[in-house]
Each structure stands twice: as C-alpha cells, then as structure tokens.
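worker-03 picked up job from queue 'complexes'. Input manifest follows; four sequence lines, order preserved.
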Amino acid sequence: MSKEPDLSYKSYLDLGTLLQAQKPLSPAHDEMMFVVLHQTYELWFKLILFELDRVQGVFGNPVVKDSDLRVVSASLSRITDILRLLVRQLDIMETMTPLDFLDFRHVFRSASGFQSMQFRQIEVRLGLQHDARVGYDGKSFENFLPAEDRDALHEVMKKTSLVDQVGNWLSRTPFVEMTGFSFWQSYRQAVMDMLENDRKAIGANTQMPDAAREMELNKLKGMQAQFDLLFGEGEGEPLPWRFDKPALQSALFINLYRDQPALQIPFKILSDLMDVDELMALWRYRHALMAQRMLGTKMGSGGSTGHDYLAATATKHRIFKDLFGISTFLIPRSKLPPLPPHVEASMGFKYWDKP
Amino acid sequence: MSKEPDLSYKSYLDLGTLLQAQKPLSPAHDEMMFVVLHQTYELWFKLILFELDRVQGVFGNPVVKDSDLRVVSASLSRITDILRLLVRQLDIMETMTPLDFLDFRHVFRSASGFQSMQFRQIEVRLGLQHDARVGYDGKSFENFLPAEDRDALHEVMKKTSLVDQVGNWLSRTPFVEMTGFSFWQSYRQAVMDMLENDRKAIGANTQMPDAAREMELNKLKGMQAQFDLLFGEGEGEPLPWRFDKPALQSALFINLYRDQPALQIPFKILSDLMDVDELMALWRYRHALMAQRMLGTKMGSGGSTGHDYLAATATKHRIFKDLFGISTFLIPRSKLPPLPPHVEASMGFKYWDKP
Amino acid sequence: MSKEPDLSYKSYLDLGTLLQAQKPLSPAHDEMMFVVLHQTYELWFKLILFELDRVQGVFGNPVVKDSDLRVVSASLSRITDILRLLVRQLDIMETMTPLDFLDFRHVFRSASGFQSMQFRQIEVRLGLQHDARVGYDGKSFENFLPAEDRDALHEVMKKTSLVDQVGNWLSRTPFVEMTGFSFWQSYRQAVMDMLENDRKAIGANTQMPDAAREMELNKLKGMQAQFDLLFGEGEGEPLPWRFDKPALQSALFINLYRDQPALQIPFKILSDLMDVDELMALWRYRHALMAQRMLGTKMGSGGSTGHDYLAATATKHRIFKDLFGISTFLIPRSKLPPLPPHVEASMGFKYWDKP
Amino acid sequence: MSKEPDLSYKSYLDLGTLLQAQKPLSPAHDEMMFVVLHQTYELWFKLILFELDRVQGVFGNPVVKDSDLRVVSASLSRITDILRLLVRQLDIMETMTPLDFLDFRHVFRSASGFQSMQFRQIEVRLGLQHDARVGYDGKSFENFLPAEDRDALHEVMKKTSLVDQVGNWLSRTPFVEMTGFSFWQSYRQAVMDMLENDRKAIGANTQMPDAAREMELNKLKGMQAQFDLLFGEGEGEPLPWRFDKPALQSALFINLYRDQPALQIPFKILSDLMDVDELMALWRYRHALMAQRMLGTKMGSGGSTGHDYLAATATKHRIFKDLFGISTFLIPRSKLPPLPPHVEASMGFKYWDKP
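worker-03 finished. Artifact:
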C-alpha cells in the first residue's frame, strides 16, 4: 500500500524547514513570540487566499450553479473562523509589554507589517479600492513597497474583485422580475403606503408636543430621501452605492424572502460576506488598540502613526458596506407584498411535483 | 445542621422571580432573545459595580496596604473577564437578522439601551468625565434620562472616580525620590543623552538621502517636544494628561522597574486597568458594527444615529489613556539608569534579612 | 403613536425585579459572582428551551416544509452560540479561588446545580434517556428533586424528543429510494467492492511484513463487521443505534450527496445537531475540570462526587451519537455511486425549468 | 542608521521559505487547511518550548530570586494564552467535514500527529511520566517513533521536569517553619478541631433522619482518612502524591495566606500552573470530540482508536494534579490559625521600615 514508506508527520509538514525559519535579530526574549505570531498570521493569510480562490472560482463562472453554493458558503465560513482566530490571537501579542517591545523594535528599521503582500492581496481581492484607502503619512501605502511587489499587486487589481463578482451574481438573480410580477413595483408601493401612513399618524396625534412632532417628521423626511435615491427620483447625483440597482434590488429581495428554499443559501452567503467585512474591521480596530498600547503616541515602524491610521482603516476600509446598507430599506414583514403563488412555487424543489 | 431545610437551587437563585421577568411586548420570535440578552448584560453590570466597590474601597483608604493589592488585582481581572464575555455575547445578538429585529423594534418607542443606569454608573465610576462625552444628537445623554436617574448619576459624579484614586495612589508611590536618588533626574539625563545620540547618528550618516534625513530629524523633533512637555519645559500650556506629574512619574517608574518585588503587583494592576479600558473600547466598537448591521443608516431607537455615535464613543470615551501614553516615554532598558543598591534593597522582602 | 408613553429601558427589561433578585446568604465577597453567574446560566437555559420550542414545533409537523428549515437552522445556530458562551462563561467562575468558595459553600446545604429543572428539561427534550444516565451516588438524579419537579419532568419525558423527531424526519427523506434507483443497493455494492479491493491489495503486497499484514487484515475485518451490522447480516443482535435503518440511510445519503440543492440545508441541520451535542459534552467536561479545581477530591454540594460524575456525563450523556457514527460508513467520493440524472434533477429547483 | 538597508517584512519573517513549505499530497481542497493548521500548531509548540526554557531556567537556579518571578508568571501566562488559542483553533479544523477528510486521509499512511516531537517534549518537560501514559493499541507511543526521535526524547526525560522543579522550590519555601511558629502544627490542630466539631454537630442534630446521619458521618470518615494520609497517620502505604510533604505543606500555606505580599506572586504562579494543566486537558478532550466527528468508530491514522485514546489522555495525562488536590485540604478562613506578627512581618516589604 505504501510506495513511499518514509512519510512521517515531520516530513509531511516539512517541519525541518518550518521550524528553522524563526530568526530573531536580537537577544530580546519576546522577539521569538513576535516572529512566531507574525508567521502564523502569514500562514493563515495564505489559507484565506486559498479559500478565496475557490469562492472566486465559483463566482467567476458565467452561471453560478446551485450545487456550487455550498462550497462557497463553506469557504466563507472557514474564512470567518480564521478571522475570528486572528482577532483572538492579538491576546498573545498583548502578553508582551511595551518595554519588552522596545528591546528589539530597532531591528526592524523600515520593515513593517505594512508590507505584508498577502494581506494586501486579501484586501484587493475582496474589493478594497485603491482610491478608498486611507493615506499613510499622506502617501499611498504603495510607496513603501518594493517595485516588484507593487507590480504584482497591480496585476491583482486588474482582476474582478469578490464584491464585484457578487454584485454581478446578484444582478442576475431571477424571481425579482417574473411574468406577471414585479417585485420592485410591489415593494415601492408598500414603502410609499408605509411612509404615507406614518405621516398621517403623526398628524393625527394631537397629544404630541410640537417639538416631538417636528422631530418625527424630520426623521420621516430623512427616510423619504433615502428611498427616493433608491427609487431613482433623485436622479442626477452619483449614487452612494457600489452595487448597481439590480444588484441592490436582488439583495433586498433575498433578505425579505429568505425563507424560500431557493433563497436560503444565497441569504446565508450574504450574511457570511457581512461577517467577513465585520471581522476585518474588528481585527483592524483591535490592532489599533494594540498599537496604542505598545507605542503610545510614538510613530509605528515604517513611519506610520500607528493607532490613528489603523483606527481610520477600521472605519473606512469597509468593502461590503452596501450589504449593511440593505437594512436601511427593509420594511416590516406585515407590510411586505406577498409573493404570487407561481413565483413562490418556482423557488421550491422539483421533487414536490412527484406524485 | 439545617435549620432551614427547604433551601433549594430554585429558591437560592430566586428563579421563581427571575424566570418570570421576561415580558416580550410583541409576538416576534426574536424578542425573547433580545430581552434575555439585555437582562444578562444588566446582571453582569451589577457584578462589575460590585467588584468596583471592592477596588474603590481599597484605593479609598489613606494608605493602600500591600496585602490588599491582591484582591484589587483579582477584582480587576474578574471585570476584564466579564468584559471579554460581554464582547463575545454580541455573537448571540448577531444571530438575529435585521428583518427579525424590525418585527419588534417598534415596541421600544423611546426606550433605549442608552438609558442603562448601571452602564452609566460604570462609566462615571471608572472616571469618564461629563465634558469628555460625545454628544448625542447634539445633546448630552442626560436629556434622555428621567429626572431621578439624572440626579442619582450626579451623586455618583461627586465621588472620586477610580482613575483619580489611582492617580492619587501613584502620586504617593515611594522609591521615586529617596535619599540620594532622584529617579526623575536620572531618567531625564538618560533621555537627553539618547536624543542627542540619535541626532548625532543621523548627522553622521552621510549615505542617507536628504529627504530621509529630514524625516528622521522631524521624528526626533516630535519626540523632543513630547519629552519637553513631560519635563515641564513647555510650561504655560495646559498639560494633555489627566494624571499629575508625580503620578505619571510613578507610572513610568513602575513600568521601567517592574521586576522589583515591590512593583510586580502594582505593575500588574496598571496592566489590568489598561485591559479594562481596551475592552470597554472594544465592546463599544463591536456594538457600533452591530448597530450598523441591524439598522443600516436608519436612526437607532432613542433617536441616536447608531453606528457613528457608538464608534465615536469607542475612540473618545477612553479613561486610562495616560497609562497607554506611558509607552511614549519608555526608553530602552540599555539606556536605563541603574537603581542604587539601597533603593533596590528597599523594594525587596524583609525575610531575606533573616540569618 | 405612543399609548403607553412611559415605557423605559428599565421597565421593558423589568430591571426593578431583576436586579433585586440577587440574595447572597453570606458576607463572602465571591458569593455575588456565584449568584449572578448561575442566574445568567438560567436565563440562557430559558432561551435555549424557547428556541427548542420552535425547532420541535417544525419537526412535530407531519410534513416538514422546506421553507421552515431556515428557522430550524437559525434556532440551532443560536443554541450553539449560547452553548459556546456558556462554556466560555466558566472562565469567570474560575476567577474564584477554592478558598473563596469555601467561604460560602456551607450556605447551600443540600441545594445544588443538580436541581436545575431547566437544564434537566433541555437534556430530556434533546433526547437524553432516563436509563442512559450516569448514576449519582448510585442513585437516579431524580431522588434529589422535589416530587413536583419530578412529576413535571416525567411529563416532559412523555413527549417525543428532538432526536426522535429528527429520526422520524430522516426516515421520511425522499430520494433514497426512487423509481429505478436504490441508494442502498448501490452504496452496498460500492462498499463491498471497496473492501474486496483492499483485501486483494494487502494480499498482493509481498513486501509487507507478516505482522503488518495481519494488522491490516484485522482492521479490515473490523470494518467488515461494522458494515455487516449496517447491512443487516448480523441480524438478531440488537443494533447499537438509536435511529432506525431508514433514518441512518438517509443521514448517510445526506452526508454523501450534500451538495445537491435539496440537501444543503438538511446537511447543515445535521451538522448543527452535532455541534449542539459536542458543545454540551464540552461544557460538561469543563465543568468537571472546574469542580476538581474548586473541590479537589471533596464531595460536591448535593452529595455528588463532583469531577468524576461530571466527566462521566461528558462521555456518556451523548445524544446525537448516531450522527457522529455516520463517519464510520462514509466512503471516498471516488467510490461513490453517481446519482442517476432523474434523481439528481429532482433535487434541484423548479425555476431552472423556466425557459 | 541602517547598515543592512534591505531588511523587509518578507525577509525578516523568512516568508520565502515559510510560504513554500505547504505541500499537500492530494488534490483535495481541504488538505491545504489541514497542513496550515498543523503547521501553526507546530509554530506555537516551538514558542511554548521557548517559554518553558525561561521558566525552567529560573526554577533551575539553586535560589529562585523574587525579582525573577515576574518573568516566570509572564511566560506561564503566555503559555496559557497560547493553549487557549490552540483549543479555539480546533474550530477551524471542524470546518472540514468527515467526507472532505476522507478525500485525503489515505495520503498519511502511517504518519500521525502522534509523532509530533515538539508536543512530546512539552509533555515530558512539564512532567508527564513515562509510566503514567495511556497505552496506545496496548503499546507505548514510543514504538511509533523513529529511533532517533526516541533517543532524543530519552535525553529530555533525564532532565528535571517542571513539576519536579516546582516541587523542589515549594519544599524550600520559608515561613512554614519559623522560630516560634509551626504552620503544620497549628493547621493540624485546626483541622482536628473542625472535624471533631462537625462530628458533634451531627450527633446533636436529633431531627436528622438516621439515613442522612449515616451519610454525613461517612462523608466525615472519608475526609478524616484523607487528612490522616496527609498527616502521616496512614504511614506505610505509598502516598498518592507526586510532591513530597514539605512541598504540599508549602502549597497549602501559599493558598491559605496568599494575601501576604511575599506570597502573592507565588500564589499566582501556582494558579498559572493549574491553568496550564487544565488547558492541556481541555485541548485533549476537544481533540477527542473532533476525532470522533471525523472518524466515527474508525481507527485513526497511525492505528490509534482515536476518540477513546484521546479522551483517556485528557483524564489521565494530568501533571499538576497535586495542586488541584490542595483544595481537598483547605479549611474555612474562620478556622485558620492566625499568623504570629513576626511571621507576618517577615512577609512584607522592607520599605515600610523607613521612617
């Protein structure tokens, strides 16, 4: 059964190589932890990229098969579990005190986590746009990369990112428009009725103090403005979304009718993507707190201002923001237009037709 | 042995009362989770306040006894473990989808987590200052509280907060000035030598491009300015610290010489306090992400703008910031002035004197 | 809009009641933590039971609708997230030292966590059988309950448990037998071929030492015996499973062909159930470790022997064991009989038929 | 400032080597996760060993200096944080389904995690004894190691393990016996009084049913027997402890008087050691659950029976059991003999003597 009888745990994992690759440059005790921790980060980044390959492979197909969606969800779940671990892993970094860090911080010179190519690739492949990036000492982070890395990254940028693939997939969702049914028209009517009723109710409430009434009406006006944008009444101004309208409509449809068999897995996938986005933000934020603890108001290695830069990326480097924005447009289930029977039927499984 | 033979698990925990106190106001399935989750938060808040009682009790003594420090550290560790749980607990909140939330969000009307008196007390007792608070719709959060709660909170504000108690305790630390030894003077000299050496090294490095040299010199200037503030050369301007200078000096001393037996527990306590601060920030930030997910860009209940407000509090409602700032002033151990033997000896245990 | 204008955060959560229900019986500091921690456990138990209501409601229907499966999975995921929190929560218990516990342990007298009726209900409703329970001082745990609790529990036992509901649901899965296709027959043939090939390969390997060959053949014999049981050749002896054979066959089918659209959610539900089982075991085991730490080899309150009893329940009080056992019968995908096209088609969505 | 201007993030972490060391042997998607996960385990094991070096270095000194205890505690805390991560990391393993595992399980042949030399070293260095190990298919695990690994491990076994170093350190603790004070004698008297009082109270309780009285008296007898062993009245039989009596006495002393300044850090260290032990057990137990999920009742790779073997090691491979056992001998603080003033004084800091 075994042509290569000498496979061992050690050779399988290439431990001879792996466990020789820790080369602290100072005698400071905590540098070993620092090296090991960053190496494990990079190993997990490699796996995230590997899982993204599978996810992007499926979404890159002209038609996304239903039977491929389980592995998409499995890979995204794995990525979120990894990100949870990476957030958690900062606990170990924080077993180092600032004074211990000072013992070897000088060895880095201009080297910095900023230069992690795998992390940059994850950002780009998920869909972080070049122009949306927070500046770093007023410069693009690319200035801190060697030319070859910069070029490699530019190649990655040319490919369709996950967020755009997902947008395309959503745009193609059936059901939203079917013979004799326009989700968009029904939904819009429901929204307009809801806003109108709210307006009347406020007017009819004679006991409400004037100040409160004004506040309530202002809130309504704000909601109306957001819906107007969605329904295209505010035409002209650039829309604040990355997804196009058909994609937004589908995402909304999936959120509203998620219990339909054909939408259960798509709904789960949209949730998974929001988890990825949220966990990336959380990791950045914890990273910011850690930097503050280690460095106070000193400059980080690589010249960055540490905490402030990282905290800004947590807030601004969000990729699946449109999916979070969907919540703005949800309406209560009680106001939801019911699906026509033939639409609902089309979202079920064939086997029910069997006698 | 048992005069009251009827004590049972149920009566001990008053489960008859406790398990009747969940009163959802809608038929929406997820409201029960919402109620239970918030109730557990409030139970844990009660315990945090109870542990703060013990911590503040010790620090409220005119002399803080060494033998009382273990319980301080134990209570702070318990608080950090609770906070870690509370951060984690948001995972359960996120098992609710925005559409599920919409099913019962209307029942709250103006009620909001904003009104949690226990949470406000925790903030005030730790030391969050009224003026440092982020405004809420341009108003103080107090406007949203009933008069009696506002008054109760004002009473709490009158007491010395934990951060001020810790500042006082630090100011009184011995060792920093002892016969024949001034930590401050030695440390200042070490800093000045270090900066001077760095300046010379930059000047002597003829291979460094001009742009790089300028950047390095700018960095040095920035550090010099911060040290000048610390050493009081920038006199006149208000200092950017909450601690007074003796407290800062002690905190710095404890960080630098933490291995001395008498400083090991104080050092641990300072770390615990930073953990509390960091975990509060992290909880606020995760809360902000969750609000965005649930509400998109809708207003939160109680009129708040949700995500933005919460994210702002994460960054600005920091209480033990001065302790994080200490890292700015740490100098490498190799440059550290050695302690005179009699100072070092005074930080050891008596039993070593025994024959 | 507001008929009851006085709803506040405090009244909504009934905090007046909730925060008065902590009544430590001793002056020991740590008793408050002990009370709060157990109360939060009970609150979460209440929520688990509430989610089980929904899950069991769906499975209690004569036909389980596909559109109801999402909420089943949502409730099970929520339960697993709660269980993860409950495991984690033991960290807080362990901030108490054994000596601190001793300060108030005497107040319990015969009261014990053993008497948590909600926990007993969770066990019974999931499907823990009376006879499968580990004895407690040689007696059934019921002896330690008041008569009314015992009766209440007996009522719960009369209802169909979740594991049996799931078994029934699995037994009814279509696809396994369809016109012109018998999964069981194809699978059995595949297994037999696989075992036969393995046997030949071992025989043909002339380089294998005799001892190794014998070991390999023994392994094969063990596998053969397990498959014989499954295929019913060992008839007569009682089967070591709780599920009947049709249920086992379906579970196997779902595991093997999980990528088919109609099986993706059922597969997720089976995984969720295993997560529940695993997390219950993990909680019991951590509980056992904690008991050992607190009590050493002393008797626990209520007369139990603490660690050993709890560790035994971790291993023996497993409910969805049959689902774990399915792994025994999986065969490599390469040996898997392909599904006939009409069977595969029946597991897809109707909308693909649309022109 | 920079003689080697080309240090980059990539070269510092040797990423060129590290990220080439993943060599899955099959086309199965999940094998990459399997490789990465095990490699991160091995990196963390390396760090655990590195931290153990520091801990064992300090305890290997003829006199353990108080000023060295902080780093001991810091290293132990880091180890526990790593172990917590390793437990948590199994979540990622469980994103793999049994069927996915089957796709590449055959590539291992006889390779198995069993052969992880670093893990074996951790066990041995902590103090797991050869004879205490659970057999594996009835054989010592060494049979599965190549000769060179076996020899290397034997070398490690020859060195004093951490548990023995700690025992030696405890045996040397001062305070337990000081001029005019014998902790042992006072404690023993307190125990005997306590047991005698309990016996009388049971006798005097005329309302107690006979069965209950007998049970209470049996419990007392059990406690008496354990104390007899401790006090040496059961002489002759081998003691069930690894520590010798002076070490046990010191551990007890430290637990009982932990608030004394000189005992605060030693007490923390004993807690850290128990955390290490508990987390190792927890990791083994989760590993056992995972094995069951992946393999059902199949044999694990390497021929082990998986779940049962691993679950047995969780229970039996405990190293700091004696520290858990200390809880058996704690007595309520109210019964604790007070320390004579000169003993208490000797445990304080010198600086209090200053005028």
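worker-03 released lock.
The CA atoms of residues 6 and 12 of chain D lie 10 Å apart.
The radius of gyration of chain D is 25 Å.
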